[in-house]
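Final report, results section. Input specification for complex C-07:
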Amino acid sequence: MKGLRGIVLAVLLLGATAPLYLLLKVSVSAPAEVMTPHPTLVPHTVTWRHWHRILASGQMAAPLRQSLVVASSVAVLALGLAAPAAYSLAQLPVRWRYGLLLALFLCRMLPEVSIALPVAVVFVRWGLQDTALGLLLAHLTMVLPVVAWVLTTTFGTIPRDVEEAAALDGCGIWRTLTRIVLPLALPGLAVSGLLAWLFSWEEFILATYLTLEAKTMPLQVYYYLYQGNWFVTAVAATLMTLPVLGLSAFLQRYLRETNLAGAVR
Amino acid sequence: MKRRHLWGLVPLIVYLGACTLGPVVSTLLLGFRDPKGHWGVGAFRTIASHYQFTDAVVNTLAITGLGLSLELCLGLVAAVILAGRLPAQGLVRACLLIPLGVPTIVSASAMRYVFGTVGCLNEVLNRLGLIALPIDWTGNRWLALVTVVVADAWKVTPLVMLILLAGLQAIPRQLYEAAQTDGAGPGQQFLRITLPLLRPALTMALIVRGVDAFRIFALPLALAGRHLPVLSTYAYVEYLEYGNQHTAAASSVILLLMILMTIGAYLRLAGPGEVLR
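Structure output:
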């Protein structure tokens, strides 16, 4: 029984890590080791050729900038719009709160293609294609329900008594918010911001509909993938993944307790 | 009476109403009109006669069915193992969760190195002596389907595992102790205690994953392209390649209906309280 468990666990671990290992391996392999009928499983030589080529070409700079701008503004605006809503939601009577949270849950479950289509049609008319603003507006539609959902839990854990006490001591609503509520909610806000950022960083469907030229990171990776150059794709994909792996591990740890299923995709 | 500050809800509701529900309603309307602006079900008739659309429906359902079975089995096994005592538990857990942090498009690229004709899987199978000639994993429709299912399962099984693990950890230990004193073996304990008490977590995983599987987009597009249409990519190709908004909208409406029916079934089954726990 113990032995069987060990074997199963080893297989699962291998399965979970192997594709990422292959990605890294291809990005530093000589083509002769990969594009043959019998590719090596462990690289015999390591070459940084593909990395040099990509970084020197400067092709990643524009997508990187676009993705950073969009993801960061999505995170900020998502907090700006969802935090007040979540604060209010947490104060509602249970029945109303459940109803609204259920509505948010349904919003999260809507198919992206049915949102993207009319948005793309309108954005072409308004000249919002290929702009960071357009992507920001589109990403918010999918991010807001999730962020509001998670933040409602955050604000729900702050005792109302603390606020009432502050009010009794003569704090106005703004002072109570900035001095009492926001500092207490800071960890939850940080996590939700990160969640929004990561969502936007890897978002693919809406970006595909709204972009012709100004590619984001996922679109750039897809572009290389479509062209069929395995090495360039591996480098771009690694560039896009490594910086966020740690962030998302941190996020999973924190979200474990709260509404995991609604939050992680 | 406590004071409530409800003004905070206004911006969110306005935004979601205008930018999320608005587009969905307008997709509905688009689907029921033709290019001249007449109302009708012409677009639905058109897509029903496309063999790619029928393929897309079958593929979407097959990916969802196969994918859910695979993910639930693997996720349950992993969750049961993680719920027990393990050496280096934190590290094992972190390693199993790695795929969850990998962007979907990146997992698609990584899967090309696994499933490519000169990919790693063919080489491993060859070294094990199981195949003599490399298999073209995305060349044939059913193999391509399996490839997409495995690629999707790779990324999301950790999520299923986490949901089930949370469910497992909520089961009181005393139940197992009592069962043991009464002489129940491990198999019996699993069937009589674990599975029934895990039902809410299983339904939750099933629904969240089911809806996501209906909406699958990047993996079939990146791994098999046009050879493996699903509902999302069918709508995408209709709009962006053929410029036909109405058929794209009609197929989005079908997808929307499938999702709403799934959620409706879940709410009937579980009750809203369970979704919002």
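The two ends of chain B are 26 Å apart (CA to CA). Chain B touches chain A through 94 residues (CB under 8 Å). This concludes the modelling results for the funded period.
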